[in-house]
Design a protein that fits this description.
The protein is of the alpha/beta class. 30% of the residues lie in helices and 28% in strands.
Length: 109
């Protein structure tokens, strides 16, 4: 609700399903915890694609959020936070039923 600015609409950047699957498959579980194991080139492509998608919302009165599945939300956040710290990353499950998601862009690589 905080990101909808009191509106019933939430502008959102969505991850392409194939990209979500790529990220999900790159999550590695170890005894020390889970981490994202993507090669640097793929990581950079994702960060650049998120930047392009976020750039399409410049000038909009409402700032978008990046929506990802619950399983990969924190990994996506860590991946983009150095360059796009101000872009909130939310899971679909965090969007309340009264809020309508308005897709403004889709991230593909």
């Amino acid at each position: 609700y905080m990101y909808s600015r009191g509106q019933n609409m939430l502008p959102a950047i969505l991850l392409d399903p194939s990209l979500e699957e790529t990220i999900c498959k790159a999550v590695r579980q170890t005894s020390a915890g889970a981490f994202l194991s993507l090669d640097p080139e793929t990581s950079q492509k994702i960060v650049n694609a998120v930047g392009e998608a976020a750039g399409k919302s410049i000038g909009s009165t409402q700032k978008p959020v990046l929506l990802a599945s619950m399983d990969i939300r924190r990994y996506v956040r860590r991946l983009i936070e150095a360059k796009y710290y101000e872009l909130p990353v939310m899971a679909y499950q965090e969007v309340t039923p009264e809020i309508s998601v308005q897709p403004i862009s889709r991230v593909r690589i």
